[in-house]
C-alpha cells in the first residue's frame, strides 16, 4: 500500500495517471460536515442603558487541518485529495485549517432556535439590529456564515462574510447562536502554532448598517492558531517528454525533497537537483532511467 506523501518512481506512469483520480471519491467516502462541537458561545447583551456588550475569552482556538490523505509521521497532507464533497457548500473548507468553535450567542430567551437576541431586546431595539464589523486581524483568515436553524446543524449556506471573497466587512447578526466557519488556506500555514486574529466592532444600526444614536458600541478580538507543525504537501509526479517531474504546492518554504529505495528505510537522501517554479508549484526534474525510488518532502530543521 502506498503511504500518503510518497511516490514510487517505478510506478511513476501509474501514479501520474491515478493521482488526479484521488479527488474523485464516492459520495460515501467524503468527510461529514464540519461540526460546531466542541463549541464556545460568547454571549451578546444590551443593558438597561442601551450599552452593547459581548463576552470575552482568553482561549486561543486551535485550527483543525481538514481531514484527508494525511500522514502524521512526516506531517504530509496530499492536497490533491478532496476532503469535503465538492457539491456541498462546506467544500470551501477543502485545503484549509478551520474551526467552528467560537459562536455569537444570546442566552436571554428560549425560542425555536434556543436563543433570539431580537426577541430578548425587542423593546429596546425598536426595529434596529446588531451589526458586527471586522475592523482588523489576519487577512489570511476567511469567514463563512453557517445558518443554524431548528434542525440543529445544517451544512448551509457557508456564505462569505467579514470581507471574505469580496464580501462586506459588516455582517448583520441574525440574533441566533451562530458558529460560523473560520478558515486559513494550508498554503498560509508557514510556521508552527501560527497565530491568527480577528477584531470585531459591534454596534446597533438600522437595516442598512448605519449606526443609530443612543446605543453604546463595543469591540472584541478572537484568536486562533495553526497546527503545531506547518502542513507539508505531498509531492506529485508526472512525465514530460523524456523527463520526470516531481512537483508540490509550496505551502511552506523550508522544505527539502528526499528520496529512498524503500519505504521502510530510515536513510532518506536529499535530492540535489535544483527546484524551480512551475505554474503555482515548485518542481524538480529527474532522470527517469534511474532505479526505483520513493519521494517525500520533509521540513528543514
Verbal overview:
This protein is mostly beta strands. The protein folds into two domains: 7-21 and 235-299, no CATH class; 31-225, no CATH class. The protein is 5% helix and 37% strand. The protein has helices at 12-18, 117-120, 122-125; strands spanning 7-8, 40-46, 52-54, 61-62, 64-65, 70-71, 76-77, 96-99, 102-105, 129-137, 142-146, 157-161, 170-172, 181-185, 195-205, 218-225, 232-233, 236-240, 243-248, 255-260, 269-270, 276-278, 281-286, 294-299. β22 and β23 form a beta hairpin.
Shape: elongated
Low-confidence stretches: 1-28
Main sheet attributes: strand count, strand direction, barrel closure? 5 strands, mixed
Report the span from N to C terminus.
Answer: 29 Å
The overall strand count is 24
Beta-strand share of residues: 35-45%
Mean pLDDT: 81
Rg to the nearest angstrom? 24 Å
Number of helices: 3
The number of distinct structural domains comes to 2
Q: Assign a percent range to the helix content.
A: under 10%
Order of helices and strands: EHEEEEEEEEHHEEEEEEEEEEEEEEE
What class do helices, strands and sheet pairing give?
A: mainly beta
- Write out the strand line-up for the largest beta sheet, numbering strands in chain order: 4-16-15-10-13
Spell out the key features of this protein.
24 strands, mainly beta, 5-stranded mixed β-sheet, 301 residues, elongated, 37% strand
Compile the SSE list and pairings.
Blueprint: E1 7-8, H1 12-18, E2 40-46, E3 52-54, E4 61-62, E5 64-65, E6 70-71, E7 76-77, E8 96-99, E9 102-105, H2 117-120, H3 122-125, E10 129-137, E11 142-146, E12 157-161, E13 170-172, E14 181-185, E15 195-205, E16 218-225, E17 232-233, E18 236-240, E19 243-248, E20 255-260, E21 269-270, E22 276-278, E23 281-286, E24 294-299
Parallel strand pairs: 2-9, 4-16, 7-17
Antiparallel strand pairs: 1-24, 2-3, 5-8, 6-7, 8-14, 10-13, 10-15, 11-12, 11-14, 15-16, 18-19, 19-23, 20-21, 20-24, 22-23
Amino acid at each position: 500500500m502506498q503511504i500518503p506523501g510518497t511516490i514510487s518512481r517505478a510506478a511513476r506512469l501509474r501514479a501520474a495517471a491515478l493521482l488526479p483520480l484521488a479527488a474523485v471519491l464516492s459520495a460515501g467516502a467524503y468527510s461529514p460536515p464540519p461540526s460546531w462541537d466542541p463549541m464556545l458561545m460568547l454571549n451578546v447583551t444590551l443593558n438597561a442603558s442601551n450599552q452593547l456588550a459581548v463576552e470575552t475569552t482568553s482561549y486561543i482556538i486551535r485550527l483543525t487541518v481538514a481531514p484527508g490523505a494525511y500522514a502524521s509521521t512526516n506531517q504530509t497532507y496530499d492536497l490533491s485529495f478532496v476532503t469535503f464533497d465538492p457539491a456541498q457548500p462546506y467544500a470551501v473548507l477543502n485545503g484549509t485549517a478551520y474551526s467552528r468553535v467560537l459562536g455569537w450567542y444570546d442566552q436571554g430567551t428560549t425560542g425555536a432556535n434556543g436563543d433570539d437576541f431580537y426577541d430578548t431586546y425587542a423593546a429596546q431595539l425598536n426595529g434596529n439590529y446588531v451589526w458586527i464589523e471586522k475592523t482588523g486581524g489576519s487577512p489570511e483568515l476567511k469567514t463563512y456564515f453557517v445558518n443554524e436553524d431548528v434542525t440543529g446543524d445544517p451544512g448551509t449556506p457557508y456564505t462569505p462574510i467579514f470581507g471574505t471573497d469580496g464580501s462586506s466587512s459588516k455582517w448583520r447578526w441574525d440574533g441566533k447562536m451562530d458558529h460560523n466557519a473560520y478558515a486559513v488556506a494550508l498554503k498560509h500555514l508557514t510556521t508552527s502554532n501560527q497565530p491568527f486574529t480577528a477584531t470585531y466592532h459591534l454596534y446597533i444600526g438600522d437595516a442598512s448598517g448605519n449606526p443609530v444614536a443612543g446605543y453604546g458600541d463595543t469591540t472584541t478580538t478572537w484568536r486562533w492558531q495553526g497546527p503545531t507543525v506547518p502542513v507539508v504537501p505531498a509531492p506529485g509526479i508526472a512525465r514530460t517528454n523524456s523527463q520526470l517531474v516531481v512537483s508540490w504546492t509550496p505551502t511552506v518554504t523550508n522544505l527539502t525533497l528526499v528520496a529512498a529505495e524503500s519505504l521502510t528505510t530510515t536513510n532518506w537522501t536529499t535530492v540535489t537537483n535544483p527546484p524551480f517554479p512551475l505554474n503555482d508549484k515548485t518542481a524538480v526534474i529527474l532522470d527517469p532511467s534511474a532505479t526505483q525510488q520513493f519521494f517525500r518532502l520533509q521540513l528543514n530543521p
